[in-house]
Amino acid sequence: MEPQIPTDTNDLQENFEDFFETALCGFIIANTQGSILRANKKVAEWANCATDDLKGKRFSDLLTIGGKIYYETHLWPLLRMQGFFDEVVLELSGATGQKLRVMVNALERRDKDGKPCFIRYTILKASDRLQYEQNLQEAKKIAEQELIKQTELVTLREQLIAVLGHDLRNPLSAVAMAVDLLTSTSGDETTILLATLKRSTSRMRELINNIMDFARTRLGEGIVLSRQDIALEPVLQEVVAEMRLIYPNREIRTLFEIIEPVNCDSHRIAQLLSNLIANAITHGDNNFPVNIHAIHDDGNLELSVCNNGDPIPADLHEHLFAPFTREAILPSKPGLGLGLYICSEIARAHNAKLSFASSAKETCFTFYMNS
Amino acid sequence: MDVVRRNNVVVKGNGSQVMMFAHGFGCDQNMWRYVAPAFEENYKIVLFDLVGAGGSDLSAFIPRKYEKLEGYADDIIEIATVLQLRDIIFVGHSVSTLMGIIASQKSPGLLKSLVLVSPSPSYINDGDYVGGFTKPQIEELLESLDQNHLGWSMAMAPVIMGNPDRKELSEELSNSFCRTDPAIAKHFARTTFLSDKRDLLSAVHIPTLILQCADDVIAPQSVGEYMHQQMNGSKLVLMKATGHCPNLSAPEETIDGIMTFLS
Questions:
Q1: CB within 8 Å: B177 and A64
Q2: How far is it, in rounded angstroms, from Cα B125 to Cα B131?
Q3: Cβ of B54 under 8 Å from any chain A Cβ?
Q4: Quick check: A303 and A269 in contact, CB under 8 A?
Q5: Buried b (16+ CB within 10 A) or exposed e, A41-53
């Protein structure tokens, strides 16, 4: 019997025939061989034919060639074995040759003995969704290409920094040696000038070392340690002596309690201390000393550098150890913002912790290494 | 190399006469799940997955080797050699029917007879030969595989989920049978739909059964008739079953056809 679809829309009652025929998705009922028994108006509209014309066709007859073969070789077997398939993207081929991309679900209805009775297909238009998906794929591809380009650029830039740092170091060493030589032979009148030269070259050396270490960590090499058991106190004393020489007007107080040898890379610990002292002198109050305290106890090393002065602004705390973090409010203070980054990398390489505490009373940076 | 593992070979059944079942493009040995059990009582059943399909070792998929059907046929010969099988009744579906024909000619005595279910020696129309597809249609098929905008992406679902630990999610998303690696499916489709083995047919001299479905869009009746005509002494059975997979949609009719041929 032909389905009865209500024609009087003035008095529309809910009705399953109407639901089937006027649904926004396509419905197909087929026999167990896959031959269409009934399809709704939506399917006929997509196939550009009358619903009766679809009877007796196979579902795959509605598909483009790729879909036909995919259906017959993959989906039909899947349907027979699994009893359903869902969320499969296929292309309907309209009578006039236009293609419509759809999402198809199918269910093989079986009786209580598991014998298949008929097959139901639900077809949803998916062209917008798939277009969106395709746009996302395109956007992803573009973003990936852009990322590759940027990564290459960054690498190039960091290589440049490394090479530049390296090339600057040699002429600087020559200057430093000349200053040392002149200091030992000149009279009083030039001593002040030479002290200034010495301070400047030392500062430049520190900057160059930091830049090179930064470039190395960025280029993936990281900070490489050469660890050994070493008497650390003389190393720290030498750093302090050098800093006193460079900053003769600043008081640096030390308290060292290191008896046993410490297992570490002493050059790197010296670099860390030198950076921390320079940092404390730059940012601390001129009228107060910089206090250095090192304790080696039960294999644990704690090294702290403290200064008085304004506390570190709260908004800097989070990124204090990130490269290029500087006190934006005081741009006159020197530095690239690499010192603390390098210190934290040195600590990391030692499996140690570098922390800070900053209050109106004092600011302390503490390096702590477990045995 | 462990051929049994490579091809996920499964041996069952009580008989001494060997029946080997090969699946075609799409899916795996599950294609025979409704047919093979009917022969277990009287035959030794050998099932396997082509490399790249089902439970086969995907790392053994060498694109160069499987560019040609001969590569797959060599695997069939290897399986038979390793398992010491001779005089095999070879039951192939779809493109694997050609692998059987190639194997029978490469290694005489290996196969005793051929059961070809929905076979086709060439899918592309050529002069008087009606393969079922025009060249542009096959090109469209291969292009649609390249663009991967059909449901082939189904196999990708677990990857997209990016959550291999939560298996239940992946299983909900993907359909568990007939899952294919899209790249392998693409390669296999090319090998399958571009091969032309019509020249091999007349050289087949072992008993052959051709099971031809009605309304098969992949291997139309004209193809079955062509094969029957080219292969001397072959038997052609036109089935009531429709579509390309009678082993799934009409297992009883398929079993009857094979049993009649074997008796």
A1: no
A2: 5
A3: no
A4: yes
A5: bbbbebbebebee
CB A292 within 8 A of CB A273: yes
Give residues 241 to 260 of A whose Cβ lies within 8 Å of B.
none
Question: What is the rounded CA–CA span in Å between residue A24 and residue A40?
Answer: 10
Q: Are A169 and A205 in contact (CB under 8 A)?
A: yes
Provide the terminal-to-terminal Cα distance of chain A, rounded to the nearest Å: 90
Amino acid at A285: D
Mean pLDDT across chain A: 86
Contact B248 A130 (CB under 8 A): no
Give the C-alpha distances (Å, rounded to integers) separating A242 from A119, A235, A246, A257, A270.
Answer: 88, 11, 6, 20, 11
- Look up tokens 């920094």; give the residue: A161
How many C-beta atoms lie closer than 10 Å to residue A354's C-beta? 22
Chain A residues 67-86 within an 8 A CB cutoff of chain B: 67-70, 72-78, 80-82, 85-86
Amino acid at A354: L
Of B31, B26, B172, B54, the residue nearest A86 (C-alpha): B172
Given an 8 Å threshold on Cβ–Cβ distance, is B175 in contact with A90? no
Residues 6+ apart with CB under 8 A from A285: A307, A308, A309, A310
Phi-psi region of A309 (alpha: psi -120 to 50; beta: other; left: phi over 0): left
Give B52's contacts in chain A (Cβ within 8 Å): none
Which long-range contacts link A108-115 to residues 24+ away (Cβ below 8 Å)? A108/A32, A108/A79, A108/A80, A108/A83, A108/A84, A110/A83
DSSP state of B69: H
Evaluated on CA atoms A81, A83, A87, A88, the torsion sign reads positive
Q: Is the predicted ipTM greater than 0.95, yes or no?
A: no
Residues 6+ apart with CB under 8 A from B259: B38
Q: What pairs with residue B91 in β-bridges?
A: B21, B115
Chain A interface includes B215 (CB < 8 A): yes
pLDDT digits (tens, 9 = 90+) for A235-281: 999 899 888 887 888 999 999 999 999 999 998 999 999 999 988 99
Query: Tell me: the pLDDT tens digits for B43-66?
Result: 999 999 999 988 899 899 999 999
Structure token pair of residue B155: 């196999």
Question: Which residues of B have a catalytic role annotated?
Answer: 94, 216, 244
Cα–Cα nearest to B218, from A160, A202, A72, A359: A72
Q: Are A72 and B140 in contact (CB < 8 Å)? A: no
3-state class (DSSP) for residue A48: coil
| Distance (Å, whole) CA B110 – CA B106 | 9
On whether any CB of chain A is under 8 Å from the CB of B189, the answer is yes
Element (H, E) at B22: strand B18-22
B135 CB neighbours in chain A (<8 A) are none
Determine contact, residues B60/B49, Cβ cutoff 8 Å: no
Q: pLDDT of A103-149, one tens digit each?
A: 999 999 999 988 889 999 999 998 888 888 889 888 999 999 999 99
Chain B residues with CB under 8 Å of A134 CB are 149
Decide if A73 and B144 are in contact by the 8 Å CB cutoff: no
**Full-prediction pTM beyond 0.90?**
no
Residue entry with tokens 């430093």: A176
Which residues in chain A (347-366) have CB-CB distances under 8 A to chain B? none
Token pair for A223: 């900070």
* A115 inside 8 A of chain B by CB: no
